[in-house]
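Obj.: predict assembly geometry.
Materials: sequence records (below).
Method: joint structure prediction, all chains together.
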Amino acid sequence: MRAPGRPAFRFRAVIAAGVVAAMTIGAAGCAESDRGTGDDEGNAAGGTFVFAGAGDPKNFDPIFNDDGESFRPIRQMYDTLVTHKPGTAELEGGLAESWTNDPTGKVWTFKLRQGVKFHDGTALDAAAVCANFDRWYNMKGEAAQSQMIYYADVFGGFAGSPDAVYDNCKAQDASTAVLTLKKYKGAFPGAFALTAFSIASPAAMKQYDADTVTQNGDSFSYSAFANEHPTGTGPFTFGGWNKATGEITLAKNPDYWDEKAKVDKVIIKVIKDENTRKQELRAGTVQAIDFPAPADRKALADEGYAVLERPAFNILYLGINQKNNPKLKDLRVRQAIAYALNRPQLVQTKGPGGSVVADQFLPETVLGYAPDVQKYEYSVDKAKQLLSEAGATGLTLNFYYPTEVSRPYMPNPQEIFTVLANDLQAAGIKVTGVPRPWNGGFKDDVQQFGKQDLHILGWTGDYNDPGNFVGTFFGRPKVEFGADAMTEMFDAIGKADATVEPEAKRTAFEQVNRDLAAKWLPAVPIWHAPPAIVTTKNVQGLVPSPLTAEEFDTVSLTK
Amino acid sequence: MSGSGGIATLGDHKRRRIDELAARTAEAGGVSLIRDAGRRLLRNPAAIVGATIILLFLVVAIFAPLVAPHDPVQRFPELTKDLTVDSMPGPTAGHPLGSDPLGRDFASRMIYGARQTLFVGVLATLIGLLFGVLLGAIAGAVGGWVDVLIMRITDVMLALPSLLLAITLVALASESTQWTVIVAVAVVNVPIFARLLRGSMLAQRESDHVLAARALGVKQGDIVRRHMLPNSLTAVIVQATLTFAVAILDAAALSFLGLGDPDINRAEWGLMLGVDGVRYLEVRPELAYYPALAIIVVALGFTLLGESMREALDPKNRR
Amino acid sequence: MVRVVSRRLVQLGVTLIALMTLVFFWLRSLPGGPVDALLGERATPQTRELLIQALGYDQPIWVQYGRFLKNVVTGNFGNSIRTGEPVTDVISRAFPATVELAVAAIIIAVGLGIPLGYLAARHRGRLLDNATIIVTLIGISIPIFFLGYLLKDWLTQDIHFFPPSGRISTGTDNTDVTGFFVLDGLLTREFDASADALWHLVLPAVTLATIPLAIIVRITRASVLDVLDEDYVRTADAKGLRDATIRKRHVLRNAMLPVVTTVGLQTGALLAGAVLTEKVYNWGGLGTLITDSISGGRDYPVLQALILLAAVVFIVVNLLVDLSYAVIDPRVRVQ
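Observations (raw structure tokens):
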């Protein structure tokens, strides 16, 4: 190819292009400053509430989700049968005005609210509620079933599975739904409030093929219902999801059955970086941010932003795996580990505002919390003494910790590991740190293969039930703890969980918690660390929820 | 253009730069000419500045335990006492730069940081150099299809931006340790050194002093060892100097992306800047400023010296 | 010409399939993986089994490979693990964002770099020259993400001048036509959306342009100095040709060749810079996608496709650089 004698390159043209670009940019700047003033005046009555979330949602079909970022918009669009009093983990009526449980604990009767309509105009009645229960139980295909994580956990399985708890659901009359289970399940009624079990419009689900989940490569495609036409009864209706800008728009539902939303529009803006969320808040482009960096909370409060601390409803623990190192089967060695950890100092130096040292595996607000458990005050001497009694001086342990992750109960795993490892070394336990990416081997190594001696992990509660905490961890043999021999512990928790009468259940779980601390100690509880929301001053009525289940219908914007 | 018609022509251009350097230093061969270049180097203020920075850096790195007031990983009760997640004790008598986020002595960490940074930079450079030189020597010595194959692989690697290749390697590694980072940053340099050595040897094959040696009946092995390798080494050293700067910058970038060395006990400037520096930028900006400044100055030093050396070896500047 | 292009295309195909095979088997040998990434803390062992069956991981590896290859050949890269969307959608959305950013950065780097480099060379040894050299050296040595944080802190927080992140103001009702927000605004006559997008583009583009700018300045300067030294320029000077004529006819034309090469090279390097810049500014392009698909939870389908895309882009850009070479320098022939 030739270009004979043609002036191929013009220097002036390049300079000119540069100048033009610079001028255009300058001009855009002027345009922006003109626009800026207009935006501030736009929020008189109603207005738009912009909330910065920390991650992309997956889809908007409640049953196929299990993460907070998906639940955030879902919660605004749907209601559950039972719900929580704002700012607490206590139950109150949702779509069901009231609910009763028969003495066997197997039959649940829901008295539904009258006159509630789905966003598509169809009525919420007992048949619609039962249609939801039936849909979940009868879901077909491994693809769909494998994504119903909460359902599989709470209801035990699907049609045909021997472990399935669900029996049937009958519409006694239009406003009375009767749910019958095959056996009592301690998770209820708390689990009825799970966002995953929100009630969706059967008509819309049918129209938009909600049950179709197809495998594609290493993941799944969801239906039009889940992506474009989520239809519930909630205070907001679906407005759109702009994936290019990471914005989910929700519009006020004018026909909401309860008090109508105060703002006209909600935009949930996905900003993954905590630093950027904070900066957008300061720039005034968002009115609230979730999960501010613990280090930034104080500065933001000083600048006049409202830092809303959620009541702590989570737990971080140091897990001990008894399988690989026989010394760890000795209670004294595990107690030595507990004594060696300077937890008050960890909370003071690295705990997000409002954190407290945990002495058991559930927060104070949960049924079954025992105030009088053994505490293991920090004492290097006691740790050393117990180790030598157990003949475990010079103990060497590998300590798995996750990287590339930040959880509400564990904002910065690497720092937590470093501090804990330091404490253990000081008590004469040699620690080999093993970092693993959260999704790149940590969960597998720790929960599937049990390669670790020690690890850090935690949990945020879903509802107010001790089984949701201690039952999840220690109710059955788990690779994570390698404590297969501790049958006494499994039995005790299983029995406590199966207790129907609330007071008896409380007593049983209090004893479980005492024994967990003094007799079994399969892990060492570290802290309860409340995550926070930060809002601008003009945001009113946003109530932080211990379950991170905030509802935006009560939010209003003042001038 | 460039006869290869290769898979990666962008690599071609990088490659051509490398070949030029190889050819230049090959030409520069001969003791007097190198001495000549050395003299030019000493007259160049940029080279002096660069060398001074590097010297200082090396001294601090090597004598870190003597220079640093404290152990860099120890947590001090007098620092943790006032430490919270949103404030860190500032400078005090015993701790000239105050505390880091875990109650460790920040000044000591900065000083030991020189050592760790040197460690990462040198190892990343050396590993790249070692494998590069090995591959280049094999390609140059064996020739034929081996040469073609090795050069084709280096072409592909040169075509990717170095940081991107490093990120991919970290993502594809089964474990993340300090070595993952060092190796990822090092691998990027293998093709550069391979080409450099091969080019230099090929260029020398026809050079006067090699032809003369051959005419005098010196054995092939001796020619390679006594004449060709030492001359090629000049080019390799120049490139290694420049590589060092890139290596520490890439290591810092990996840390920033959360893909760096996971052990935050290690005091390495890139890690300190990319993790704590960014996270606590508002709480204590010094955590970012000092490591960043250190990285900039050291990278500048290596770049200055490397470029001055390259310039000095350029036959065009030989007047 | 046609033969060259078609030969390159065949090479492209073969390279890609080899690369995909390598990546496929490599990814499946890693710990963690899709099952781990798709399941949260709450999954029961039964759910895990279901998932393994649903994804076909219980089948022999060669069956999985066959299905994978069939999908890839038909342009189906599966769904993103993180978002559940088809990978092709995810990438085609991120692609324009990065291209928009990269084009802006190149405009800044070239628009400022070439004149600066030229001026520095003309004023060799004087203040302008020395200052340029020092500033560009620092530009190469500064960690770009740190620079981004400084700029952002200063210009969006200390003084609220630029927006801190994103491509367009939140809640802007812009029409998406091409995915290039600035261009879309012009096409749909939503000019304020276009201006808004441009305003968001400034800081990220300046950050991303730093390194290429520094390098282009240095190369231009060196290259112009080389040419000024050449005999024919001196001859022209001696002949008494007007300065402007010399500049235009001889110096620039001849000095441009290495500069164009550098611009080409830097275009490739921009993608690496974009990974850092986009993370700093929450840009939502390919760079963010790369980071998210690795540290946001090992999203292997996306990663696979990105590696493939990177290979394609490089091969194509190479070809284009070759062709542009031929346009600038008639002595060069494409073989």
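Conclusions so far: Chain B touches chain C through 47 residues (CB under 8 Å).
To do: check interface contacts against the pulldown list.
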